[in-house]
Amino acid sequence: MLLAQISDLHIKRPGALAYRRVDTGAALARCVAALNALEPRPDAVIMTGDLVDQGDPEQYAHLKHLLAPLEIPYFLLVGNHDERAALRAAFPERVELHSGGEFVHYAVDVGPLRVIALDSLVPGRSAGTLCDARLAWLATQLDAARGKPTVVALHHPPFACGIGHMDALRLDQAAADRLAALVARHPNVERVICGHVHRPMFVRFGGTIASAVPAPAHQVRLDLREDAPSAFVMEAPAYALHRYDPATGIVTHHAYVDQADGPYPFYEPEGALID
Ligand SMILES: [Fe+2]
Fold it and tell me: What is the mean predicted confidence (pLDDT) over 149-155?
C-alpha cells in the first residue's frame, strides 16, 4: 500500500508567480506527471494544505484544473493559505470536504490504512491550532480507528523545528501537547504527517513519528539560526511516499519530482560488481 504525500502547492491564478519568482502551477503539473509515472502507482495522494496561495476562488479553479490529469485518487487538507468556503465551492463533489461542519476534517480508508485529516486553520493567521471541538472530533475518530493502522494528517507541524521564522507559525504548543497526549493513547497511529515547513523532517511525537515534507515548488531555506530571516530557495522539488505493509508498518521514502541522471547498473551483465 502506497500513500503519496505532497504539500504546500501555493497555486496562484494562471500566469501569476508566487513571490514574483515561483511558477507554482508549472511545478504542480510536473509533480502530477511524476506521480502518474510511478510504478507501482500510489493508492492515493494526500495534499497537506496550502493548496493555493491566497484562498481565492480563481486559484482553486486553477488548482482543480491542474489536478485533473492526476490519475490517482487524492485528498485535500486546508493550510493557513487556504479558505474553507472557497475550497468547498471549487470541489462540491468531494463529500469529505463538506462533512465536517465548520471544519474541513474527515477520515477515509486507503487500503488497510485509516487516514484522519485534520483542519488546523485559523482564518487570518499563519499559525495553526486545534480547538476543543476539533480535538474532540479527533478523539472520536481515533477511538473508532482502534486496532487499525492510522495516519493523522494536518498542515501545521506540532513541533518546533529550529527554523525560527517557521516556528513562530507552527501549531500552538497547547494544541500540540493535547494532540500528543491523544496520539500517545492510540499506539495504532503509525504517523503524524504535516506540511507547512517546506522541508523533510522527522521527530518523535506522542509515542509515534511526526514528519513533514518538502514542496513541489519552493522550499524554506535550511537556516537554523534563531534569527534566521524568512526566505525560500529553489531546492529540488520533492514529496513523500509512505509505504505500508503489515509486517513493517510505514516506511517513508523521500522522492524527487525531477528525473535524475541514471539509472545505471551496479553489476556487469555476467554478475560481477562493476569496478
Ligand atoms: Fe503553511
Answer: 98
Residue 81 Cα, ligand 1 centroid: separation in angstroms? Answer: 6
**How many whole angstroms from 49 Cα to the centroid of ligand 1?**
7
> Contact 123/129 with Cβ under 8 angstroms?
no
- Give 158 Cα–ligand 1 centroid separation in angstroms: 13
Please check whether residue 65 lies inside any domain of the structure: yes
d(CA 164, CA 149): 33
When pLDDT is averaged across residues 51-58 and rounded to a whole number, the result is 98
CB 90 within 8 A of CB 57: yes
Q: How many folded domains does the chain comprise?
A: 1
Residue 265 lies in a domain: no
- What pLDDT digit, counting tens, does each position of 240-256 carry? 999 999 999 999 999 99
Q: What is the mean pLDDT of residues 81-86?
A: 98
273 within a domain of the structure (yes/no): no
**Residue 125 Cα, ligand 1 centroid: separation in angstroms?**
10
Question: Does residue 271 lie in a domain region?
Answer: no
Say which CATH number the domain at 141 has: 3.60.21.10
Neighbours of 69 (CB within 10 A): 11
